[in-house]
Protein: Flavodoxin-like domain-containing protein
Organism: Bianquea renquensis
Amino acid sequence: MKLQVLFFNKYGHAQVIADKLSSLFRCKCDQIPPAYQCNKEKLVFIAYEKHGALDKKFLEFLKEMDTNKTANVALIEISKTGNEGFDELRTLFNSNGVNVAGTLGLENHKGVIGKGKITEDDINKALEFAKKIGSEMFESFKA
């Protein structure tokens, strides 16, 4: 499988999800920006947290993702509503020729002093989403 999992953290929730996906697919997991760039991956899962505007370093990295790096991405957003950044990122990827294979939004209400919580239900939703996308992209994937 040509597959990779990337994450962008503010509070650590995206890394929890990314680590679970990496274990599920037995693939490399790295933070954004990664130590090693993607190279002709068939699918890249990107888990990120969005509380406010999307981070400049995160967007700069994603702007460089084109078909030489990946053919498909699947986005997992953790935010107040669970769907705050999808339109912007879908436009960015489409302009680079990269297909958005799917999106999953997880609601996370960060408090004034707290970072909110990632629940076991959130993790299970992410795993089910990943299994669905993985089985669509890879005939050999049996989760």
Remarks:
- The domain at 3-137 is CATH 3.40.50.360 (Rossmann fold).
- The chain has one domain: 3-137.
- The chain has four helices and five strands.
- The mean pLDDT is 91.
